[in-house]
Amino acid sequence: MMGKKALKFVLLSVAFVVIGLIVGWLIFVPFAKEPGYDFVTSWGIKGHGPGQFDDPTGIAVAGNQIFVSDSRQGRIQVFDFDGNFVKIFGSVGKGAGNLGRPMNLSIKHGELFVAEYFNDRIQVFALDGVSRRTFGKVGSGAGEFNAPGGVDVGPDGSIYVADFYNHRVQVLSPDGAFIRQLGKPHIKGRGSGSFTDFSDSTSSISFSYPTDVAVSKDGTLYVADGYNDRVVVFAADGTFSHKWGGPFGMNIHGSFQGWFATVTSIAIGPEGNVFVADFYNHRIQKFTAEGVFLTSFGYGGNGEGQMKNPIAIDVSEDGAVFVADFGNNRISKWRQR
């Protein structure tokens, strides 16, 4: 008799565990709500000539052209939408027009904004490749950077910078003057995806190596909180709005829908949807502005239609998605089915 009771208890326990796993999956791993994206074309190989790359790390679309950070070669390469080479500008160095590991890019108001990881500054170019101005220097003070990884410009001209090693986002005026900082001082050994900011208040948010920023037309700021594996969103006035990535926005890795394994770039599509480069999961994920998962595309490899560590992303006005495929030293183009 006791044996039957024990068996019944074990079976019930197993059933509860299975049901719990199913419910947890349904709650925390959403299904796609939109069709996926089809691979269109790709271009680039590892090398030093035009159309060749040595670690592409940033991408931005303007009109019918695509600007790519060719990071280790300290230059920007420009292509048309079919991948045909147009021009190159920049070279390794610290002077005006030189670049020190250019990272994520942004094109706003007819200018190209480049985050320079090695030069600890933002450099602004005309779209013909002429350097116009720079701002920032190495440091942890207001308006200083330690390896900036991403930059974007708000509708009022304010400049937002993902200050990687300083674990913060800085907001600057159009001429580079400091306005405010987002993200409290980072606690070594603890990322903000843990319970350090579980209260979801503006004052409690801290970043762990933020990699990129994107600003919507209404001034909403989206932060790629790199090593916390999440997206953090702020209203135009700098107050915390919401976050997503894994259960409760916590620092949990996983290749499940809506989860990330290092967020390296973020872009806003023409309809206001948010595209996120999920680096170690070798894919791009797409969300609504509120963080609702819509679809994903790409998987690891070096074959056609595959990605290996996608690091940067941008979306054209007609909805085409362009990805800097870091591990394969190439650019790929995708369209929704």
Strand pairing plus helix content: what structural class? mainly beta
Low-confidence stretches: 189-196
Portion of residues in helices?
A: under 10%
Q: What oligomeric state do these chains adopt?
A: single chain
Secondary-structure element pattern, one letter each: HEEEEEEEEEEEEEEEEEEEEEEEEEE
The coarse overall form would be globular
In what order do the strands lie side by side in the largest sheet?
1-26-25-24
Distance between the termini: 60 Å
Please indicate the percent range of residues in DSSP E strands (runs of 2 or more).
35-45%
Kindly state the number of beta strands: 26
Mean pLDDT score = 91
Number of helices: 1
Main sheet makeup: 4 strands, antiparallel
What characteristics describe this protein?
single chain; mainly beta; four-stranded antiparallel sheet; 337 residues; 1 helix
